Amino acid sequence: MGFASYAIIATDKGWGILHDGDVEGDYETKESAFESAVAAASLAIREGHEVHVSVPSREAGNRTNLGAKDTG
């Protein structure tokens, strides 16, 4: 079977998911991008693929734990 990789990355607007060379989605937080990536990864597992999901630390993006804009 194949290999599916989902990498959460910072974008100009917030967060996206790098998958198959394309950035998919427009998420406000790393957490929401992660939840979406995990749902897609779950489908890939059911199809028999090897799956990797990666999420950057708070050092990426706007330097908050969940990646949301700091409102205070």
Description:
By secondary structure, this protein is α+β, with helices and mostly antiparallel strands. The protein has one domain. The chain is 24% helix and 33% strand. It is built from one helix and four strands, in the order E-E-E-H-E. The chain has one helix at 30-46, and strands at residues 3-10, 15-19, 22-27, 50-54. It has a four-stranded mixed β-sheet with strand order 3-2-1-4, with helices on one face. Strand 1 and strand 2 (15-19) form a beta hairpin. The longest helix is centred in the middle third of the chain and has 17 residues, at 30-46. The N and C termini lie far apart (47 Å).
Quick structural overview:
The chain has one helix at residues 30-46, and strands at residues 3-10, 15-19, 22-27, 50-54. With 72 residues, the protein is an alpha+beta fold. The model has no long low-confidence stretch (mean pLDDT 89).
